[in-house]
Specification:
5-stranded mixed β-sheet, Immunoglobulin-like, 281 residues
């Protein structure tokens, strides 16, 4: 029997994708544990529900398999009409799922409430989404700037550029001006957009929030004090033709390093404003 050329192409594509090392670079079966207290709590809740599902599946399918094998017609089994209309059995298989749902709903509700609680924040940053970049404003700090796709990624993505994307570090996941935050500090985010709907998503923070024109959404995160580093995300809302080219990069610094960075940004932006004012004057 001859296979269709389309089927052969599909199989060859899948094999090539699975064999390529790059295909395995960021591929994972489970959600990341993250580097914030909230992300770890969400991960713990996720795993708890996963194992509940595994236990339920093991019980249900196990009972089904035993019933099919042990009580098959060839063994002379006769249907139990009493069980088919047993009020006791119906009550049991109704009450048990309800109890399980309540047991799971309590910690889930507690986590959802905590996830929306932005009280006690120490730093507030306004994030505005544009096609196709982000603007970060440190409220009451006098610091504001845009973050766009890095030049080397932007050059490599162009058709006919001749640049191998695999040769570009963090291809399509690097920016010119990352968001800088201090570790061990509760950071409040105010998200909006200028044109289309965007979504600010950093998996390691367990933060994914829509940025909607004319509306302000709120989120928060606190990077663990022992987890300074660089964390990457992407716009998670289809916002136009170049949606895939507006990544998010967050650099978490120690508090001293952050204060030094903030002062340098304040000084440079004040100087730029003064120079602009003198030119226009």
């Amino acid at each position: 029997m001859l296979r269709k050329p389309g089927s052969l192409c599909l199989v060859a594509t899948l094999v090539a994708a699975l064999a390529a090392p790059a295909a395995h670079a960021n591929w994972a079966l489970n959600m990341p544990k993250g580097v914030t207290s909230m992300s770890k709590e969400i991960y713990s809740l996720h795993m708890s529900m996963f194992w509940w599902c595994v236990a339920i599946a093991f019980f249900v399918f196990g009972w089904m398999i035993v019933s099919l094998v042990k009580f098959r017609k060839s063994q002379g089994a006769v249907p139990d009409t009493a069980l088919l209309h047993s009020t006791k059995a119906e009550v049991i298989w109704t009450v048990i799922p309800v109890v399980i749902l309540v047991v799971l709903a309590i910690p889930a509700t507690r986590t959802l409430i905590k996830q929306e609680d932005a009280t006690g924040t120490q730093l507030t940053i306004k994030i505005t989404g544009y096609q196709w970049k982000w603007q970060y404003e440190y409220l009451d700090k006098g610091v504001s700037y845009f973050s766009t796709l890095s030049r080397n990624s932007d050059a490599a993505r162009q058709l006919g550029s001749g640049i191998d994307p695999d040769s570009v570090p963090n291809y399509l996941l690097s920016v010119d001006n990352p968001l800088v935050v201090p570790v061990g500090t509760k950071v409040r985010l105010l998200l909006t957009a200028q044109d289309a709907i965007h979504a600010w998503w950093v998996p390691e923070f367990a933060v994914k929030k829509d940025a909607i024109p004319g509306f302000v959404n709120e989120a928060w995160f606190e990077v663990d004090a022992d987890k300074p580093g660089t964390y990457r995300g992407q716009c998670a809302e289809l916002c136009g033709r170049d949606h895939g080219f507006m990544p998010i990069v967050v650099v978490a610094k120690t508090r001293d390093e952050f204060e030094a960075w903030l002062k340098s940004q304040q000084t440079s932006q004040k100087q730029a404003s003064a120079a602009g004012a003198s030119t226009t004057g």
